[in-house]
Amino acid sequence: MKVLAIDPGYGRCGVAVVEKNNGGKEVLLYSACIETSTKTEFPDRLAAVANECVRLIRQYKPDCLAMEKLYFQTNQKTAMRVAEVRGALIGAASNAGIEVFEYTPGEVKAAAAGFGGADKRAVARMLHALVKIDKKIKHDDEYDAIAVAITHLARARQ
């Protein structure tokens, strides 16, 4: 099973493609942070994120898309924009015939680090134990996307 996992955002959107490896560590095939400029209008930023995810769907042909659910943020404008990004990504997956799964931040931390209140360092440490990662991860958003993939792969086994 191959999962395209996303930590949604429009300034920085973490993406990862992780493949299940029966009997060994899961394998990170790709991860990155899609970054857009604050000087760019929101519709163009949204299109950039969505287009990159469509490209990843075409290139890696994932079995499903998993993403983190939106949690309440104090900045309503930011929350609304992230919700719009999520909608565009769900639409892209649906257009490609790919099922979408969503997980709360607590579910992701529990699956990746064994504790729903784990901090980012604990999650990153555990991801290196669970996933074959052959590159330097530059942003937390990438780790977050990898953790979403691990969450889905763990749930899919049940």
UniProtKB/TrEMBL annotation:
Domain of life of the organism encoding this protein: Bacteria
Cofactor binding note from Swiss-Prot or TrEMBL: Binds 2 Mg(2+) ion per subunit.
Protein's GO biological process: DNA recombination; DNA repair
Q: Where can this protein be found? A: Cytoplasm
* GO molecular function annotation: crossover junction DNA endonuclease activity; DNA binding; magnesium ion binding
| Catalytic center residues | 7, 68, 141
What InterPro entries does UniProt report for this protein, alphabetically? Answer: RNaseH-like_sf (IPR012337), RNaseH_sf (IPR036397), X-over_junc_endoDNase_RuvC (IPR002176)
The UniProt keyword set, sorted, is: Cytoplasm, DNA damage, DNA recombination, DNA repair, DNA-binding, Endonuclease, Hydrolase, Magnesium, Metal-binding, Nuclease
Residues folding into a coiled coil are none
Q: What does this protein do?
A: The RuvA-RuvB-RuvC complex processes Holliday junction (HJ) DNA during genetic recombination and DNA repair. Endonuclease that resolves HJ intermediates. Cleaves cruciform DNA by making single-stranded nicks across the HJ at symmetrical positions within the homologous arms, yielding a 5'-phosphate and a 3'-hydroxyl group; requires a central core of homology in the junction. The consensus cleavage sequence is 5'-(A/T)TT(C/G)-3'. Cleavage occurs on the 3'-side of the TT dinucleotide at the point of strand exchange.
Q: Could you give the subunit structure recorded for this chain?
A: Homodimer which binds Holliday junction (HJ) DNA. The HJ becomes 2-fold symmetrical on binding to RuvC with unstacked arms; it has a different conformation from HJ DNA in complex with RuvA. In the full resolvosome a probable DNA-RuvA(4)-RuvB(12)-RuvC(2) complex forms which resolves the HJ.
Q: What is this protein called?
A: Crossover junction endodeoxyribonuclease RuvC
Species this protein is from: Candidatus Kaiserbacteria bacterium RIFCSPHIGHO2_01_FULL_54_36
